[in-house]
Amino acid sequence: MRRFLLPAFVAALLALVLVSFAIVSASRVTEPSVSAVGTADPQDELRVAVVGDSLSAGRSKFLGNGLDDESWMSYARGDGIDFVGGWARSGATPDEMASAIEPIDDVDVLVILAGTNAVRLGETVADEADAYRRMVDVLEPERVLVSSIPPYSAHAADARVYNRDLRSLTEAEGWTWVDPWVAAVDGEDWIRGFSVDGIHPAGPAEYAVLGEAFRELILQDRNTATAAGS
How far is CA 129 from CA 68, 104, 134, 155, in A? Predict the structure, then answer.
């Protein structure tokens, strides 16, 4: 009797060991190793250039002097965004910007925030359309983000028309239209306290809000482009 029971017991034990080994092996396959996690390549930083006027120039009123606490890019850069330069000066029109900027190597994203001074001088998007194209031609970025201009209390209707036409130009050129002013605007005017002069954010805290909005839009555009395979 024992001669027949022993092989059956051994066979059952062997089967149990094989099943347990298979389960352990399967669980090891589904768990990433420590070395695999540690060697994952970090996502490359986006090389971002800026062209604009006083809304981008900072406290010194000229971006060439470096970023400061009233430069929105001060709050947008880092953790995936590498600021590589550009050109911005207080009072500049798009045409003046296009004439002043110089080439920059390997620009991933160009952010254009321009047009308030065109409105101030009574110029239209039709007058300045070629200037926007020249900016892009000089910098040759992979992606172009064109920002809406903020409310302009002294020329409110003209600013709205300019934004409407600038958005049309942006879409026609295949660029990306962005609006970083959502947290700064109530309807068609500034939120109370966000601007003192009806043209610019009031100070560093407000420029920080603008910078964070731009940061989110730049990274969102990157994710959209990646998902689309462009």
Answer: 30, 22, 9, 20
- Cα–Cα distance measured from residue 72 to residue 94, given in angstroms and rounded to the nearest whole number: 19
Q: Which residue has the tokens 């029971």?
A: 5
Q: 3-class secondary structure for 112-179?
A: EECCHHHHHCCCCHHHHHHHHHHHHHHHCCCEEEEECCCCCHHHHHHHHHHHHHHHHHHHHHCCEEEC
CB 94 within 8 A of CB 132: yes
Write the Ramachandran bin of 185: left for phi over 0, alpha for psi from -120 to 50, otherwise beta. beta
pLDDT of residue 188: 87
Regions of the chain with pLDDT less than 50? 1-42
Question: Which residues on neighbouring strands pair with residue 85, listed in sequence order?
Answer: 49
Least Cα distance to 109 among 46, 43, 173 occurs for: 46
Q: Collapsing DSSP states into helix, strand and coil, what is residue 31?
A: coil
81-88 β-sheet, strand order = 81-88, 46-52, 109-113, 143-147, 176-178
Q: And the tokens for 8?
A: 């059956």
Compute CA 73 distance to the chain's CA centroid, rounded to the nearest angstrom: 10
pLDDT digits (tens, 9 = 90+) for 59-90: 999 999 999 999 999 999 999 999 999 999 99
pLDDT in the model for residue 27: 32
